[in-house]
Amino acid sequence: MGRGGKTDPLETLAKLKETTTTLQKREELLWKRVGEEVEKAKDFTRQKNKRAALQCLKRKKMLETQADQLSNNIMRVQEQIDLLESSSMAVTTVQALKEGADAMKAQMKENKIEDVDKVMDEINEHTDNMRSIQDALGTPLSNSVDEDDLLAELAELEEMQEEEEAREFDAQLLAPAVPTAKAGARAAVKAVPVALPMAPARSAEEDELAALEAEMALA
User: How many other CB atoms are there within 10 angstroms of residue 152's CB atom?
Assistant: First the structure.
């Protein structure tokens, strides 16, 4: 029991689970005793003691009945545990939903629809102002150049280009033909001067001798 005579669901769940554990242990013990009585009946049967064997089987039946009753009791307690857990979850869920609703209600009191509309209007106004500023910054500067002047300048450049191409074409027509490789080689051979053998240089004595011979020839 909880405070003020009210039942605490958590305490009840704990007691039910404890009861289930106790009943399960008792059931395991009964089934163990059932197995023991069966082994005893087998032994008495081998000993040809029919009466003792029947007593063992009788006790086995009683133990099985008690075990079956415990099994049914465990099932009932487990059902109560499941129902109480489901109920507790439902209560917890409802309580959470109620707290959420109360919190939402409190927030709605603080934030009235008029305040929301005012905030949205301010946001929209700031957004429009920002777009106006961005549009103003994105507008190109005024262009004072006359398009006709630009076209005239472009035509002048095209005319100068055509005249330059015409001069290059005329220069190509008037240029002499480029000699072939063989003709160029022949011309190069002809242009190279042939080196004549040079007379050996005479010494001073040879010069004096030549001068003396010339004087004798004149005499």
Answer: 11
How many Å from the N-terminal Cα to the C-terminal Cα in the chain?
177
Q: Tell whether the model's pLDDT for residue 140 goes beyond 50.
A: yes
Rounded to the nearest 10°, the torsion over CA 99, 104, 105, 111 is: 150
Question: What is the amino acid identity at position 10?
Answer: L
The CATH superfamily label for domain 3-114 reads ESAT-6-like (1.10.287.1060)
Every domain of the chain and the residues it spans: 3-114
Q: What is the number of other CB atoms lying within 10 angstroms of the CB of residue 30?
A: 20
User: Coil, strand, or helix at residue 185?
Assistant: helix
Residue 211: band (very low, low, confident or very high) from pLDDT cuts 50, 70, 90: low
